[in-house]
Amino acid sequence: MKKPMHHPILISFVSSISFVFSVFLCCFFLSTGSADGQTAPRLKKSSPLHRARQSAEFAAQAQPRNIILLVGDGMGATQIYAGMVAGRQELNLERFRHLGYSKTHSFDDLITDSGAGATAFSIGKKAFNGAIGVDSDTMACETILETAARMGKRTGVVVTSSVTHATPASFLAHVPDREMHEEIARQIMESKVDLIIGAGKKYFDQRKDGRALTANMRERGFYTAFDSASLVQIPKGSRLAALLWDKEAPKMSEGRGDFLPTSTRLALEHLNDSTKGFFLMVEGSQIDWGGHANDADYIVREMIDFDRAIGVALDFAAQDGQTLVVVTADHETGGFAINGGDWSSGRIEAAFTTKKHTGVMVPVFAYGPGAHAFTGIQDNTSIYKHMMRMWGFTASSPWPWRKSAPEKPRRSDTAE
Ligand code: MG
Ligand code: ZN
What we know:
There is one protein chain. By secondary structure, the protein is α/β, with parallel strands linked by helices. It has a domain at 62-181 and 260-391: Alkaline Phosphatase, subunit A (3-Layer(aba) Sandwich). The protein has helices at residues 8-33, 36-39, 48-61, 77-86, 114-123, 144-150, 166-172, 181-190, 202-205, 213-219, 228-233, 259-271, 287-292, 296-320, 380-391, and strands at residues 66-72, 98-103, 154-162, 195-199, 222-225, 239-243, 278-284, 323-328, 332-333, 337-342, 347-351, 357-358, 362-367, 376-379. Helix 5 (114-123) runs parallel beside helix 7. The longest helix is centred in the N-terminal third of the chain and has 26 residues, at 8-33. The termini are far apart. Magnesium ion is lined by residues 73, 114, 161, 165-167, 283, 285, 288.
């Protein structure tokens, strides 16, 4: 029998390569092992190595059926830490194992507003401050919510502001100026969205043009609800528009109660009734307003409320195993700092550098299939790109729903 001849140096080269490779594999599986809590309770009984391998494969497949994007408006790292310290509790945000940072600047300004910030998430392009669902040429672009709807997924938005406010509007409408609330409401009425829960009834029903858009929405198959009692009566899986307050939702300190976590749970019950999955955007809208007011107590209460909604989303995703949860912010507000305080009593000495937004990076948290893509430092537009890539979707261009967004000169100032 002929024995193949091997050069001794070649053998040692090959064996050291394979040694290095196996060390690399071990490190890879060990490091991805920490992601395992992410991948589902159903893997719990397996061996650690098996679980690690499954986790790595799971993350690599990166095909979530559902995506829940939670936006804490104005939520920088200090807002989060203030929630932990002053709230004297662990936050649900501490359950995440995949973290990153997002670069928040808009097309024309180092300091973004919430319109351009949310538009980066909704269309994946940098826009002018004040822009809603349009690119830097103020051309309407199909939002991820609209693409998801066109591809047969169910879609929804839950916010603690008016549903026409900049963040939700950026997923539902296309206007060059965020202040066009009545036009945004009209576009929401005409949109394909399945579920909206928030405030802003007056932009639908007390309009300059005299129209009552909620009646039009009922004609289009929406259930409408103007109080929480009628909201919970709506049959599961229906299209619904719940506008519980005329203009804006009250603060937590004014008795908003568990509106946001409860509405998030309700939205998941409605939207999950589908084999094709869903896209849900949830916003903790008023963390930003606490920052504008330089009011640390306002920030902390809104932060903790938003975190409870995050907990609802995480619990759902852990059960479901096919849901990607992404939590981030559009920008930081207030230049909020903690200059002193006491961990055990939860006292914080708050300081602010501005009543406006700041230009710092903001955290990104991800959980579930595809979560690894959100680690590292990335542009805010990447959040859209990763979500779309994971679903294998591309935005229809030109925007397929209507010819173009209505023309109006964009605002030059930096808005809320
Ligand atoms: Mg907002
Ligand atoms: Zn703001």
